[in-house]
Automatic annotation (TrEMBL):
InterPro entries with a match to the protein in the record: AB_hydrolase_fold, Peptidase_S10, Ser_caboxypep_ser_AS
EC number, UniProt record: 3.4.16.-
Name of the protein in question: Carboxypeptidase
Signal peptide (UniProt feature, chain positions): 1-19
Species for this entry: Ambrosiozyma monospora
Presence of the UniProt keyword Signal in the record: yes
Amino acid sequence: MNFKLLTILATAVVQLASSQPLNLQNVLSSKPQNLLNDLVNNGNFKLDSVTSDIRETWEQMEKTVDRESIMKAVNDYLTGKCFVNPKQNFPSESKINTNSDVFQLEKFPNHKLRAKTNAHPEKLGIDTVKQSAGYFDINDEDKHLYYWFFESRNDPANDPVILWLNGGPGCSSMTGLFFELGSSFIDEKVQPVFNPYSWNNNASVIFLEQPVGVGYSYADKSSVSNTAVAAKDVYAFLELFFGKYIQFNGNDFHIAGESYAGHYIPNIAAEIVRHEDRSFDLTSVLIGNGITDPLIQYDWYGPMACNATLSGYKQLIPDEDCEKIEKEYPRCARLTKICYDVPTALTCVPATLYCERIMEPFMKTGLNVYDIRIPCGESDNCYKEMDYVDEYLNQEEVMNLLGAEVDSYVGCDETVFRNFILNGDESKPFQQFIAEILEQNVPVLLYAGDKDYICNWLGNLAWSQALDWSQAGSFQDAEFTNWYSSIDGAYAGQAKSNGLFTFLRVFEAGHMVPHDQPSNALDMVNRWISGDHYFSN
């Protein structure tokens, strides 16, 4: 998750689904606790779209969200102070549709996969394996998703294929490549450094820049504002990918990712299994420190910050702030339940706005929301190494060798992020898709670094145990067992599994498990893709 929510959500609330500019004077002159009525009267919302559930949501939200700050956000938006992105990700005309090996399928007439023949990623020295880079085009929607494919260092003809997705929403999967699990890291000299623990040691890995607008991906006219649309785009990409790279079509295929990929991956997996005419099969999914069931996960911010016995660490905030969180969650839950029942922007964005207040006590500590053991630091993303990645991928030579068709690389795109929040996607439920794919016998691994706060291990464990599916009982009854790395024998964590659904607590790791525990993360993925779902010894 990209923790810029607190700085832009107030604007998102008042700009929901608005096709007309707000009349600021009319809104500012209105009486307290009547903002929804003002927006209806001002023409921003249609009256017939405001159901009783929606009105209840807004009334509850307006009782607890500071009106003055919302009005300031309205004014900032109208005067252009918000959502200014200095690195707009627009294409360079001279680089588009040139020097590409184009692949298409009849059942996707408006889609094509362009492997850039003028791209030479191997010359960057990231890895010695065979690589391919290019674009997946959705022509009728003018969307162009960038991908970079690394073959396995071991046996590419037989090793599994993994699709990796970062979250945000709106953050580049190059973060996974160069900061976590890829073939090389980028150091302070802005040079690649070989990673011996790369996940392509025993698997071929695809890094996909999605949704459109992220990283090297771009669109002139279209945008994606919800996970459901993104899932359809990724399914079409996979059909063309396995058609183009037909030699990998029979290999095991897994989808892995972290953070907001806890939204993406369940929906993508369900989209895949619903297509009986698919040309490839889904072997499993892996979700690291994901946000999947917000209703349950928000309830565990308090224990993670306040209950050392449960968290396994120490109390992070004062008792009075712990009490504040405890008092705020019930209203968060009521708002989120309405979003679950009526999943629209009008119902879900107020839930997101209110529930994010639960994060405020932790933010006051100055600690890293992605790793409770350390301060956040000066970088926007709390890690200076991510700035090195941005700098590297914006170098002209690098962009040319990768066949990038944009003039700049954007690590986390605020426009994409805003569009998802405006749509209410953040607070919507996605755990039901996990139940759906489990019923189709697709194994699921939830792994969680136990020093993360924003998508903490307690919340992930809680929603996994509450999941309603036919074999829920055997998962709930399963005992935790110790996981020892087969690489170096380290006591790496604890596993809970019924063989199909597995929860893995990763010791001494934050939000980005492969970054914090590279050796143990490699052992984790190697054992999982080999079929060891119990992490037995």
